[in-house]
Amino acid sequence: MSIALKNLPREEPFAPGHSACQGCGPAIVLRMTFKALRPDETAVVAFATGCMEVVSTIYPFTAWRIPFVHLAFENVAAAASGIESALRALERKGLFKSKKKVHVIAFGGDGGTFDIGLQALSGALERGHKFLYICYDNEAYMNTGIQRSGATPFAAWTTTSPVGSKIPGKPQFKKNLVGIAAAHEIPYAATASPAFWADYIRKVRRALDADGPALIHVLCPCPLGWRFDPSMTIDVARLAVETRFFPLYEIENGRKYRITFKVPRPKPIMEYLKLQGRYRHLTRPEYSDLVKRLQEAVDSFYHWLEHMEKATSDL
Amino acid sequence: MTVSSGELKKARIVGLTGDEAVAQAVKQCDVDVISAYPITPQTIIVERLSEFVANGELDAEFVPVESEHSALSVVTASALTGARVFTATSSQGLALMYEILYITSALRTPVVMAIVNRALSAPINIHCDHSDTLGARDSGWIQLYGENVQEAYDLIFQAYKIAENRNVLLPVMVCLDGFTLSHTLERVELIDDQDALSYLPKKLCYPFPINPERPATYGPLALTDFYFEFKVQQAEAMRQALSVIPQAMREYEKISGRHYYFFDAYGLEDADVAVVCLGSASGTMRYIARELRKEGHKVALVKLTVYRPFPTEELVSALEDMKVVIAMDRSLSFGAVGGPLFEDLRSAFYDHEKRPLIGCIVYGLGGRDLTPSDARSIFKYGLEIAKTGMVPERVKFVGVRE
User: Fold this and answer.
1) Largest CB tally within 10 Å, which of A272, A298, B233, B276?
2) Measured between CB atoms, does B82 come within 8 Å of chain A?
3) Model pLDDT for residues B299-330, shown as the tens digit of each residue
4) What is the ipTM of this complex?
């Protein structure tokens, strides 16, 4: 499937005028998401509490030209399950009709997905609801002011993983969300990046066409929390991929792995780290060991992915 | 509940437990989405409902969630989509739903939830008291309490009627005592399926259902400039419910022959002492009241069916001529003036000219049985207060070891 800029829909279900920060990665990703819809399709979106919910629906204003539902922080997958089930029941019983095919898309940040919302997400994936879950991962609790989450990378500074004289940033590594989703053996799971828009839109398209639940994990740079200039969002996102820090891949039916953007000659991760204030301490010589550990983890995961791709290529 | 004679279809009479009766009523309401998580003593409700769906007796989506928190989240979102929805829980399950209880009511979704009353942990206990639902009394849900299996069945229909009324649009809890009602087989008169649907016509149950052709934003952020107004509208909806509830009950009487009101009073016309209680204890209390009246004691029983909204005016005018009112609380409000029912009743009388003496009895925690002799001692306690003119202790525990 080729995605051409000139063929993308001009409609903007996520309208301008919201109050997201300049250079907000998640806001870019929201816009791009709906570029995957065909003319005969529309969507209902459900949001976990978080940045994107807060910036887009400050009463009496809304940035949404499609139905938007927000209940709470940890239950967006359950809310999406409820909408999907109700639409199915009501359509069957003749109480709901739509000219367009209606997709249910749930959005959660990394806090609402990796941490507090993981149980509801697992339940919804296991039950097999026909919906797409998009995790916009900015690698910390940004809405409450940059606290560490299960998605915060090793050694990164946040306000609850400060760079202290004894503990320099987050001691733990990031959780493998796509691996967790794939373990549910859902039809489709993938990672994505706003710097690779065609790849992202193609993945949303594949996810919407999947016969069952799908999950896309998008790395969304946050200028405020990662401490970089708002003009650099896409550059930072691209470097995350080009250093193999955040590889782009997809998993079909929990089995078949495919790297969707191969990085044969990766840049050193320092190229990516040095752009961001949250890693500023890592440029100091006394922390070179941390950089080494991080580089090893990045290399090791990418090599594992290559093995998985090769091992599952004939599935 | 009293049966009135009239032109009614011949009722089908069956033997059902409280849980089965609730499931039967939910089926007859033709719900669209059910989501629940098993918990004793509620489990049989969802077992029966999943059977109805699996056998094609009920055309609904059954969403077997991984927690009560998700159960209420699912049905709240389904209700926003316009579906008629149902969930059920008990005790810890209700406690886990707490966060969503307030969201369900604030989004004005007409969710109906059966609560099989059970004590809260710790210590863990599966038997009945009202700590679970009484703790949720401020969550913006209407609360109805059944005395027996027939009432649990009947209240489900009335709950939908009230919840879906456009002047109300609030969720409703139908509460029935764990085991005493949930697992006890009783004679139940079923209403006719067609009558049920004429009482509760099938339609989209939410006035602005989710629809991409008419996009709307549900559950926005509202801060200092608008939040307060939303809350006052909820309070107004609760006030409206006070007039909608008796109307829904009158209409139900037309199809069932059974009369419901905010409360059911026995012996009030000439009594000095009235006991007010919720749920299945009413049966024992009424039986003892009858015996005591035969012995010449002027006692009465008021069984409260509607606890939220609290029928303040109606209760005050019904009880104003009593010398003594005893509130029977099957829950504790730790550190408070007294039990929740007691506090509501006493507060209701504060600005009324005629004020009975009001006592509080706490009984039956964790399923402790309320024996006929306990019931008798409660009335005697009231009669003693009537004689002495003073309430000896603000909260008195009955049935507990010293």
Assistant:
1) B276
2) yes
3) 999 999 999 999 999 999 999 999 999 999 99
4) 0.97
